[in-house]
Write the structure tokens for this entry.
Amino acid sequence: LYSILRSNDYDYDVYGRGFSFEHMHRQDFGVTLKANRRLLLVAAPFADYGNRGDVDLREHFDSNGVHNEGLGKGKVYAFFSQPHVQVVTLQSDEIISFGSFRLKFDNNLGVVDDLSDIIACDSTAEAFKAALEKMSTIGEVEVERFESFDMNSNPNAYKIRWRVSFISSVADNQPPFVPIWHGSGCNDCSELKVSVLSKVPPNIIVQTTQSHEKYTQEAVIQPRDITSTDFLGSSLALDGMQAVIGSMHSAAKTRTTWDFETGDLSGWEQTGDAFRYQPTYGDNSKHRAVYEGYGNEASKSSGDPQSSRLVGRYYVGSFEKRPSSLESYQSPDNTFPLGNFQGDEPTGTLTSDPFIILGNKISFLIGGGCNALTVYVELLVDGFPSLRETGKCSERMHKVS
């Protein structure tokens, strides 16, 4: 069971001194870890650091990240080790109505004749587990119980099976249980009784169905809104299948992109489909007809284009349909031409991460529709609406504080 544990992101390069030096990519794998039964969580706070190579290749040049400690986001890796499993089967051709038995190891970890407590013939999984864990060399086990009566299964139509998983055992070889019962090595066991119609005496067999396996990576844990220097995995807690993962550098730090210059909606939670193609690249409304135009009566009837007066490359306009390119946030998606739009039919909401206002005011730019009941920007303070603003029926954005 003991082996070197590595994640699927483990990487190093070989270069220098005649390609004899191994240069490890620092991820701080193993800086914190937690185990529960056969589950093991291992943190690597500098993982996802911007590897410039391929983890499956040994490059002969420096493919490490530029600054792993500063750019690494962090990951937590979940490993699992399959335990030894044995199945204990009590069987006969008729239902076994009474009696008991024991299980023992002839020689395990230097202990001879390690005996379980008395086990009833109809023992529950919980009672079976308790009886086994009285043995001095067994540690913790997990027990499942199955009962069946199949008239077509001769000669043993009646069977009770207990599936035993050796949770604590890390030995390469787990000796099989040796069953003993009344008339077969156990003097203090009650006789196993069946009906007078029985032609097959009760018997017990033990089968090994699974040997333990080395720990293998089963999953990677990383939140969707993680960012560089979060130090994910700086602390870990594990209770059963529930994990609490510390990310000390992300505390109280909003992920929201306020100016949308990342070309996406990082830190914003959306519902519906109104914001599916947001943010909008460039001054898109300047290159399309506007629903009522702007200015004099003639321009209103003609729908002359209007500038949104955006700052930077991007803004959010739910009427628009000109998102960023998937290849580069610095350019638009050429699938959607300049002036392209989706209209007012889509609906939805866009909500930022919680944030702290440092000062006594907050400012933003807003334009577009002017129905304060259906299209608006709203500031929530401690979850309660405190300010609502809408546009002026013009694409031109104005500042609101």
Observations:
- The chain is about 5% helix and 35% strand.
